Each structure stands twice: as C-alpha cells, then as structure tokens.
C-alpha cells in the first residue's frame, strides 16, 4: 500500500513538473486544452508563428503601428478573431469573409456581403497596412486608427450585426457570447494574463494581426535592394518595366491648359514609393459616383497600398476605386490619363487639375503598357499562401 502511494505521488509530481516546463510539450495539454482541441497543431502556444520580428527591408521607413507593437501572442489571438464567424450575429461572417487571403486580404466583388445583405462598399486590401503615414481607415477615413476600425464592422448592422440598433444585439452581447467560448478564455489569459474580454483587447489583437500582414517579396523589392534609390534603373527589370517606373515616379510637366508636354505621369505624388502608400493629404481622385454608379461621392479619399494589385497569376485581386467600378489596370490608368472636371466636385485633388484644368496626360499606348507592367512588379507571392495568415480553424 505504501508503495502504491509513493508511485501515485511520483505520477502527480511528474504531471505538475511537466506543466511548469514550457519546453516539454505538456503545457498545451494541461494549461490550454481547448486551444489544443480546437486548433490542433495550427496554434502551438509553445512555438508561435513569427509576427513580431519579420524581416522588413531597410528602405521601408513608414510605420503607423508603434502605439500598439506587434507581439506573437497578440497577433495569434488576432488571427483567431479575424477568422472566427462567431464575431457576427448570425455566425456566418468573419473579417476574413470580406478580406480574403486569396485576394491580398481584399474582396473581389463590387460590394461585400454582410449579415444583412450587401454592404455599402467593397472591402479594401489590407496588404502592408502598417507601412503608411495614413492612420485613418475606411474609404471615407471615418476611423481615426486601425484599432478603432477593427470593431466598427462588427458593430455595423449590415456587416456583422452587433449594432445594438434595428433589433440587433449589442457589442456587449458579443463579449458575453465570446466569454462562453472555452478557447477564448484560454487565449485571452494566454495573451493578457486574464480571461477578461474587452473591446480594447479585441481591437489591439486584431490590429496586431492585420499590421503583421506584409508583402516584400515582389520583383520590385528584388530590384530595389540592389540600388541606392528608386530613381536608378533596376537591373532585374525589363526596359519596359524601368520605363513604367520612371513614368510613375517622375512628375509631369504641363502647359497652361493642363496638357502634359513632358516628364512622367506623377503617380508617386499620391502613391508614394517605396511603400506605395496613399498620401494622407490626398483629396478626391475624380471618381464621384456612389457604389451604384450615381450621385456625388466626394469624401472617399482613402486608398490601400498599390502593392499586390494583382495575384501571382497576374489577375486583379479586387475591383478598383472606392466604387469598385474600375475593372482592370488599363481602365485605372485611362481614368488618370484624362481627368474631366465634373460639376459639383468641389474636392478634386489639386494635383489632378494643373492650372485649374483637369489633367490630360496624353500617354501613348507604349507608356500605358509600361506603367501597367511596372505596377505588376509590386506584387509578391508569399502573402497568398503563408499559413500564419491563414485560417487557424
């Protein structure tokens, strides 16, 4: 009998010892059984994916995430939240339903689908959202930070349905709902040291995951790494791609009527290399229709990075512009080639109306093709398949 007690003591002691040793593989089983049961090998709390210390090229200098630094733990929780349909009132829509990894975390339809039908816009790509001086989000910039933006779709009646209006449950009801999910109890404890779920914690985790989604493995990046600045010819580019780069970077020269007589086409005035982020001071770009193609729509001045406009197969990831009415790169280039001053557009960016006239870039067919070829070099491949940005479920 005494021998049995000793053996029982040693068995219990061994379990406790294993539980206290984070390197022996038992911590997941003892401390986080629901994470293990739900996610299997997709999330290993002892061996997290690298979100916090990814390689960033030395020529990339813009960073809007310093107030909420990425951690491996926080981004892991953010990944689960991003893909979890429980965050919608109908358990049918997740953030990832509209921000699809296969489309550079954008949506390939004109208007995204929410719990109550189509929404007012298509979801913009989230590629390299961290690497921008623009801190506002949504097409109309109504969210002052990414953190604030992350829960606004959840609290929208049309998108994810926890609005607290129109008969919807409230965001607090969502928190109550998540409190009943065992793997969230463990994840919030794992990340924050407490099972308590709050909106701020959800916002911070989602924002960390989104800012971790980066793409720097493009043909452009391979060429940029070999030169001192963007204005030098890239040795890995074709002559056409280098021409397109020069056109993109160089400002145009106009005559008094707004007609281009020399120089480039000035895309970089608003879409600034090497991040290709949108200048926060940009105004309307000449697109004034609503999502249905009619009416004045002047306040939508946000744009995602121009990186990963197309996927590795050269197919456009999302329809273009805030209205989604531009179906391809040729049409987008054509729009900027000839800017017409539309009645009622009091918010047109000054860079598009030299001398008070709508710009006429007068691009040749060869120049348009070169500009398109350059834009395609901004696309990578890793972001579409990397498992750390994929669904953990």
What is the strand and helix layout of this fold?
Elements lengths: L1 H19 L6 H5 L1 H7 L32 H12 L11 H4 L14 E2 L2 E2 L27 H6 L19 H9 L2 H11 L6 H14 L6 H6 L14 H11 L2 E3 L5 E4 L7 E2 L4 E2 L50 H9 L27 H12 L17
Antiparallel strand pairs: 1-2, 3-4, 5-6
Short description:
Helices cover 32% and strands 4% of the residues. It contains 13 helices and six strands.
Describe the model.
GO terms for molecular function: peroxidase activity. It holds the Pfam family CCP_MauG. InterPro entries: Cyt_c-like_dom, Cyt_c-like_dom_sf, Cytochrome_c_Peroxidase/MauG, Di-haem_cyt_c_peroxidsae. The protein is mainly alpha-helical and 393 residues long. It has two domains: 48-214, Orthogonal Bundle (Cytochrome Bc1 Complex, Chain D, domain 2); 219-382, Cytochrome Bc1 Complex, Chain D, domain 2, CATH 1.10.760. It is built from 13 helices and six strands. The protein has helices at residues 2-20, 27-31, 33-39, 72-83, 95-98, 146-151, 171-179, 182-192, 199-212, 219-224, 239-249, 329-337, 365-376; strands spanning 113-114, 117-118, 252-254, 260-263, 271-272, 277-278. A two-stranded antiparallel ribbon has the order 1-2. A two-stranded antiparallel ribbon has the order 3-4. Strands 5-6 form a two-stranded antiparallel ribbon. A hairpin with a 4-residue loop joins strand 5 (271-272) and strand 6. The protein is globular. The two termini are 47 Å apart. The model is unreliable at 1-29 (pLDDT under 50).
């Amino acid at each position: 009998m005494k021998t049995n007690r000793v053996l029982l003591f040693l068995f219990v002691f061994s379990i406790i010892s294993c539980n206290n040793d984070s390197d022996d593989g038992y911590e997941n089983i003892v401390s986080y059984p629901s994470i293990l049961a739900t996610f299997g090998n997709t999330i290993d709390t002892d061996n997290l994916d690298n979100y916090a210390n990814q390689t960033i090229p030395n020529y990339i200098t813009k960073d809007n995430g310093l107030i909420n630094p990425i951690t491996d733990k926080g981004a892991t929780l953010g990944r689960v939240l991003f893909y979890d349909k429980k965050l919608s009132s109908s358990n049918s829509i997740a953030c990832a339903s509209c921000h699809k990894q296969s489309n550079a975390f954008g949506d390939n339809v004109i208007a995204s689908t929410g719990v109550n039908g189509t929404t007012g816009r298509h979801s913009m790509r989230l590629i390299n959202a961290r690497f921008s001086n623009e801190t506002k989000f949504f097409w109309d910039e109504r969210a002052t930070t990414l953190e604030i933006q992350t829960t606004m779709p959840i609290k929208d009646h049309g998108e994810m349905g926890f609005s607290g209006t129109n008969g919807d449950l409230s965001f607090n009801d969502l928190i109550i709902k998540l409190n009943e999910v065992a793997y969230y109890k463990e994840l919030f404890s794992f990340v924050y040291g407490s099972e308590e779920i709050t909106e701020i914690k959800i916002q911070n985790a989602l924002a960390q995951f989104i800012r971790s989604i980066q793409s720097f493995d493009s043909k452009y990046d391979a060429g940029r790494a070999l030169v001192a600045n963007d204005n030098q010819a890239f040795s890995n580019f074709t002559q056409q791609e280098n021409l397109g780069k020069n056109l993109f970077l160089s400002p145009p020269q106009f005559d008094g009527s707004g007609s281009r007589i020399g120089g480039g086409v000035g895309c970089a005035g608003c879409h600034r290399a090497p991040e290709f982020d949108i200048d926060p001071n940009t105004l309307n770009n000449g697109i004034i229709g609503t999502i249905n193609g009619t009416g004045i729509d002047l306040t939508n001045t946000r744009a995602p990075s121009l990186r990963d406009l197309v996927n590795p197969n050269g197919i456009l990831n999302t329809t273009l512009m805030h209205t989604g009415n531009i179906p391809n790169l040729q049409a987008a280039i054509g729009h900027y080639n000839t800017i017409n001053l539309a009645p009622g557009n009091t918010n047109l960016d000054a860079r598009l109306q030299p001398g008070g006239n709508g710009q006429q870039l007068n691009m040749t067919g060869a120049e348009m093709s070169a500009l398109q070829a350059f834009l395609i070099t901004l696309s990578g491949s890793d972001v579409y398949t990397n498992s750390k940005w994929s669904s953990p479920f």
